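Dear all,

This email documents one entry for the complex benchmark we are building for the journal club exercise. For each entry we list the sequence lines for every component of the assembly. Then comes the predicted three-dimensional structure of the complex as a token string, followed by one or two observations. Please use this as the template for your own entries, and keep the labels exactly as they appear.
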Amino acid sequence: MRVMAQMSMVMNLDKCIGCHTCSVTCKQAWTNRTGTEYVWFNNVETRPGQGYPRTYEDQEKWEGGWTLTKNGRLRLKAGGRLKNLMTIFASPKQPSIDEYYEPWTYDYENLTNAPLQEHTPVARPKSLLSGQDMNVTWSANWDDDLGGSPALAAADPVLAKISDKVKLEFEQTFMFYLPRICEHCLNPSCAASCPSGAIYKRSEDGIVLVDQDACRGWRKCVTGCPYKKVYFNHRTGKAEKCTFCFPRIEVGLPTVCSETCVGRLRYIGLVLYDADRVLEAASVTDERELLASQRSVFLDPNDPAVVREAEAAGIPRDWVEAAQRSPIWALINKYEVALPLHPEYRTMPMVWYIPPLSPVVDVVAETGEDAEDPGNLFAAIDTLRIPVEYLAELFTAGDTVPVTAVLKRLAAMRSYMRDLNMGRDADASIPASVGMDEASMYEMYRLLALAKYDERYVIPSAHAEQAHGLEELATECSLDYDGGPGMGGSGPFGEGSGVNDPIAVENFHMLRQRQTTDTVADPSTRKARVNLLSWDGKGAPAGLFPPRSGTDGPHLRDPEGPSGETQPLPAGGSVPGPAGTGTEPTGTPPTGTPPTGPARDDDAGAGR
Amino acid sequence: MNTTETLLWVVIPYVCLAVFVLGHVWRYRYDKFGWTTRSSQLYESRLLRWASPLFHFGILAVFLGHVMGLGVPKSWTEAVGISAEAYHVMAVGIGAIAGLCTLVGMVLLIYRRRTVGPVFRATTRMDKLMYLVLAVVIFLGLWNTVAGSVLNLGGYYDYRDGVSVWFRSIFLFQPHPELMAAAPLGFQLHGMAAMLLFALWPFTRLVHVFSAPVFYLWRPYVVYRSRSDRYGARAARPGWERVDRPQKVR
């Protein structure tokens, strides 16, 4: 037994209202940069739908993930090592930008510069790739809320797996949202595909990261990941992916997508697992066994033998305790209501989902029957074959039994809690009918419905004795790095070349630039990015909100500029902001950037 | 050995090779992040699908041919019983095919780079300079093979008695510039352009040649890395060495 800890997530799909707040805040924090316009570390898909990128789930087409060879061994679906290397010059299965979408901006300048004319001037869409006028024909959420159905939804690869006759009926019955981030798999095929070995799994918390200094842009990971959650930054020529917000996780904060989730549907916690058994579990012959085999890899953190092994493996005591309180462990192995997304890709994904019961409840309610009566709900789950089959294709490789079991548990919880809420006697037969007792059903209800912040996010912070190993180091002046302080735009060999800036410094400058500049974020300058990562939610740093109408926000005024006039942004060049002049910005210094307080502003400015 | 010969075939080669070596060291230390292929496949893959493998496999064969032709002395191949004629036929045959693949691939790639909007937009000035020099080198090399050895324009010239010996003499630190001075103009130009390319190399995207990921064949599939062996995004400060903390006793 080799115990390892894995930071993982469960999303309760019943609560997702498809507001895309997670996607937007994630984008603001991580991919609001040139080269990553089309990159969504977090996206929310409407199901049925094609997903992002289009039809990514069709592995016969995209060849992501693993496949089982005839002799029962795991092999990358795109081919073995030698084939992987031989196709390095032109990756045969890489989605083109059309499968994502061509990023664009609008010619806003025309709105203010156009001469007086009969017709209202328009801001035409301009491609961010070619700079030319373009027609917007697709985007990350073109088929949001079943837009364009049935023409678009019919291309859903998951829908294609369930029989034809259900399609029409199905469209009338339900729709739900599927928020997706990187799965931080136990058996990551992106890492296995990377010729340079730049993608690695952190042995402390299992977060899968791309070493930006080691990535050489061979783009095999894009093919390797069946979830298509590794993206190619087309300006820097490097792969980028969801980082599980590791700088936040290391200090005990949940990811940005979880923090800002309106429905509070995300849970984060540790899972202990036996690393020695991962390969064996991923290699079971029957795809439908993968759910059970993955569950069996997880170790019970309350088992004294596991605790002993965990300590022998160097997992700190408080991490083991966090694993014992982990909502993930509870939802996956104790209540067994969470299911993995596409286990048949054999990557052992670690972001799991509680399938939505709402579509079933809606259908029952539409018939006029009591939608919270256990008998009605159970019968509906059994007869509403279509949603169940669809969910099974997503979460259990097509096996409807586990999905039905989960939905029945959720239905039983609904009915059981209704009796309690209405002041009636609890009906012990309802939990018993789904194999639970009353106490655990109530606990599950608490976790799903009432859990507070610290119950949803049980995140042990990284250890003080490991502080020097933290990627986001806060114990020394973070401007002390080779070539620092300050940050430039493009290096001599194109976007992003040159020495990497530590994230804290980058955020600090970006934030200040953003808050003190008077131009719209220009994708061509790295400095004009917004980063919510460095905002701790306390107070409102200058520039977070646009100035109120009528009053020109003082922080928006250039202190050196004549009478507060705005300065145009030189194309592709650096912004002559206050930092460049060596004077203090008049705006409030940003909160949440501990290493670089306002006292260092002069230093930062002078070095630029 | 006159001054011009020395300058052209001793000084310039050594300067270019020094820039090549030191440039790579500097680039790797300074710009690991910029060390990438800068693939443009995301923008366009229809042309790339054919042109890129054609070019890359072609140039790999050309490289191996140069290792053979420049690196292996004539006496060695004769010692193992390969006659000069047989060697000549083999070298010219394979060389012409590989060179043609390279040339066709490169022409297609340059055409694609110029005509596909996003690809052209992502082309830096350094890229353009590099493409120019690379194209000149490849064209001159192919010209020497075809015009010199196949069509026999300007008479027969065995580069293995001239250019190759000069090339090896550079690395033996006993340069023989007179051999290059006696070589046909085509070989001289090809050699000089190649020197220029070597000097440019570390500052272009060509550095990706040195990250050819052959170790992938033996590496375990999934790489684990501890947080503690990465030390964050922080570069070591000059004058300070990191001291590893004692490992926890199990």
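Observations: The domain at 11-102+137-259 of chain A is CATH 3.30.70.20 (Alpha-Beta Plaits). Residues 400-421 of chain A form the longest helix (22 residues).
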